[in-house]
Amino acid sequence: QAQLVESGGGLVQAGGSLRLSCAASGRTFSTYAMGWFRQAPGKEREFVAVISRSGDITGYGDSVKGRFTISRDNAKITLYLQMASLKPEDTAVYYCAADRFYSDIAGRNEPDYWGQGTQVTVSS
Questions:
Q1: How far is 69 from 103, CA to CA, in rounded Å?
Q2: Helical H runs in 10-114?
Q3: 58 within 8 A of 52, measured Cβ to Cβ
């Protein structure tokens, strides 16, 4: 069965860094665009970052641009999100996602596959 499993979330102080991982199995996700979304309590789900199947094209939400870096290792079928200069407003559950089309993720359309999320909490 297709599965995306996030890990690496936790508690970090403002200004610190954290790296999230998303391990994929059960599907040929190396042929899919992948990305990250997040959702904070009481707020709508927010686009964070997207990466093309080959890793050569990336995009970011305005709130994280310049601070977060998305990457992928297709040999390990793993997606990463390196987060730096973290702010309390970055606190959210972060979800890994995959879709055949880069534009569907970047445009906040519903991706075909989702992980169950990992909690990131940034303290002030």
A1: 18
A2: 102-106
A3: yes
Residuewise pLDDT in 10s, the chain (124 residues): 679 999 999 999 999 999 999 998 877 788 899 999 999 999 999 999 999 999 999 999 999 999 999 999 988 889 999 999 999 999 999 999 999 999 999 986 789 999 999 999 999 9
**Residue 101: helix, strand or coil by DSSP?**
coil
Give the integer Cα–Cα distance in Å for 98 and 120.
20
Per DSSP, the residues of 67-99 read TEEEEEETTTTEEEEEE-S--GGG-EEEEEEEE
Cα(35)–Cα(55) distance, integer angstroms:
11
